[in-house]
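> example.struct
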């Protein structure tokens, strides 16, 4: 519950590590260290100290008047409180203080004057505080972040914690954003910020099963689709497009696993990515654009119809054990009963991606084991027969990335691929010439124009549909 106290006047701590002392003098014993945003009951004043009571610590004491701001909760003072909230809502590091002022405003404002603005501000500041807590690596700030998270908790702003790869992600639970979406008075920008705050990819519980995750993603898509198409600044509209692209690409992956047709979801993801105005991307949004492109790239084959491409080799799929798909490699002389090679997977097999080289000695196939990770299977003929090797986007644990076939080089010894993946918050995209016998990279570059052989022999169908050439 926001600001449980019903007092007419409170003191809000404005400085971190303010001392609550046993007496009104600097030499008195320190009873507690108070942090920015903590709310205190005022019980009197002595010299330049306020006599206060901390309901959270259940302790009385004295604090210097210069370290707090006396705040009236009378309706007539609501406008002044809102002015302070507007100033603090976009001030990084002042989230705890801003949230306390917003909570004070909610106590002061008459019901008939209440709009979505304070809820939008509370959600925005709580969300930013959670992001700071997740990315903080400076030990000197750790105590302050913990204290500010405690302030949020006292104000009724819930935080969730998820562990991924031995790191802890802190996420705001979104209650204030839900209130914004429920208010008819909320404008387009407030609705957009609320939708973005509620649909963060990194704040979806990683322990959800496939069915629960699918329902969460459907809900996320619905929330984002309720954002008005007009009335938004280009920067904010871009963020909505990017988030939609990521959510719909995940839905395309999930629909295949549910034996549903993924084409609509995959096409929607591609359309949302294409709708982004790249001229209006900030540096931070440019990173989000790349992330969304990689997510779309992982599932983009779901938008392609399954058509037989020319070549001497083809692949078919047959069921394996429950949940498993087995890929069968065939040619004119080898059918399902007598295949050239076979390999099974629990991932999504994108048959539309299958591409055979001219000599019939190799075939590339996209296989997606995770919603954000797509691999390349290479069936190739060796001196000992047919081999099936898996090329991952990167030599790391599966995370965010894709690798895809981009063309065959005449001579049946080399092929072209592109890899794009995320590592430690940075994205890497490489265009490569790969030797078939060893699947090692012969040459690579950040752009296909820097590799004459790549520019000459890249597959025309790949160039038309890939997101790597964005």
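> example.seq
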């Amino acid at each position: 519950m926001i600001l449980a106290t019903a007092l007419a006047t409170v003191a809000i701590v404005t400085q971190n590590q303010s001392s609550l002392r046993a007496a009104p003098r600097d030499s008195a014993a320190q009873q507690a260290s108070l942090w920015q945003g903590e709310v205190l009951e005022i019980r009197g004043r002595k010299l330049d100290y306020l006599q206060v009571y901390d309901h959270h610590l259940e302790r009385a004491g004295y604090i210097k008047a210069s370290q707090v701001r006396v705040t009236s909760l009378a309706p007539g003072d609501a406008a002044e409180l809102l002015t302070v909230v507007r100033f603090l809502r976009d001030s990084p590091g002042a989230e705890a203080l801003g949230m306390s002022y917003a909570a004070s405003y909610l106590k002061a404002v008459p019901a008939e004057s209440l709009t979505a603005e304070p809820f939008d501000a509370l959600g925005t500041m709580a969300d930013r505080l959670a992001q700071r807590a997740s990315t903080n690596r400076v030990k000197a700030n750790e105590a302050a972040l913990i204290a500010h998270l405690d302030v949020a908790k006292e104000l009724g702003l819930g935080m969730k914690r998820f562990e991924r790869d031995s790191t802890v992600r802190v996420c705001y639970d979104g209650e204030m954003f839900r209130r914004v979406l429920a208010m008819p008075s909320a404008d387009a920008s407030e609705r957009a910020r609320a939708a973005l705050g509620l649909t963060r990819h990194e704040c979806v519980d990683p322990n959800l099963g496939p069915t629960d995750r699918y329902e969460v993603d459907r809900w996320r898509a619905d929330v984002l689709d309720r954002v008005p198409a007009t009335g938004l600044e280009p920067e904010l509209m871009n963020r909505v497009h990017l988030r939609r692209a990521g959510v719909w690409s995940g839905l395309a992956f999930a629909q295949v696993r549910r034996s549903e047709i993924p084409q609509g979801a995959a096409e929607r993801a591609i359309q949302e990515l294409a709708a982004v105005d790249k001229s209006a991307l900030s540096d931070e949004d440019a990173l989000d654009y790349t992330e969304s492109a990689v997510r779309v790239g992982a599932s983009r084959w779901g938008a392609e119809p399954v058509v037989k491409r020319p070549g001497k080799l083809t692949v078919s799929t047959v069921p394996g054990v429950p949940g498993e798909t087995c890929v069968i490699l065939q040619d004119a002389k080898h059918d399902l009963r007598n295949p050239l090679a076979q390999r099974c997977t629990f991932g999504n097999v994108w048959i539309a991606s299958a591409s055979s080289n001219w000599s019939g000695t190799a075939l590339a196939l996209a296989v997606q084991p995770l919603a954000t990770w797509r691999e390349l299977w290479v069936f190739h003929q060796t001196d000992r027969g047919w081999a099936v090797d898996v090329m991952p986007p990167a030599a790391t644990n599966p995370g965010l990335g894709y690798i895809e076939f981009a063309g065959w080089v005449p001579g049946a010894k080399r092929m072209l691929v592109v890899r794009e993946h995320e590592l430690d918050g940075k994205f890497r995209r490489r265009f490569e010439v790969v030797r078939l016998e060893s699947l090692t990279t012969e040459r690579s570059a950040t752009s296909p124009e820097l590799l004459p052989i790549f520019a000459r022999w890249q597959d025309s169908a790949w160039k038309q549909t890939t997101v790597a050439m964005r």
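> remarks
The first strand starts at residue 9 and ends at 13.
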